[in-house]
Design brief:
128 residues; mainly beta; Beta-clip-like; 5-stranded antiparallel beta sheet; 4-stranded mixed beta sheet
């Protein structure tokens, strides 16, 4: 990890835990490269009935993926301070792909790190 991260109660009501930083993070700085586990589409029906449903990301060409490290614990915010991107490495099996978390603005020590899950998340989960 580029910076030390820790888990604490989220600043968002009802969000449970969140990811926070122990030092300032600069804009465009990589926060974390998260290894991923890719699930087959057949696993989706089961995953949606478990706690994992709240921690998986959509995966292109497949059903879903779980980001290891702190990757699946970053909370959603409509105005995030970080972004996530799938890093695919040419010539490597897709199981070597990573989810990269990068700051999109400066993040102060002790601040919660947020990503935006996508345009339909608020409507789907929060009715907004």
């Amino acid at each position: 990890m580029a910076k030390k991260l820790y888990i604490a109660p989220s600043t968002l009501p009802g969000a449970g835990r969140g990811v926070f930083c122990t030092a300032d993070i600069k804009e465009n700085e990589v926060i974390e490269n998260c290894p991923i586990l890719i699930f087959d589409k057949a696993d989706d029906a089961h995953i949606t009935r478990t706690l994992l449903a709240h921690y998986v990301f959509a995966y292109t060409g497949r059903a879903s993926m779980l980001a290891l490290g702190f990757g699946s614990l970053y909370n959603h915010h409509i105005t995030p301070n970080a972004k996530y991107e799938l890093a695919e490495y040419e010539g490597m099996d897709e199981m070597h792909n990573e989810l990269c978390i990068t700051a999109i603005k400066p993040i102060k020590k002790g601040e919660e790190i947020f990503i935006n899950y996508g345009p339909f998340y608020d409507e789907k989960y929060w009715g907004k």
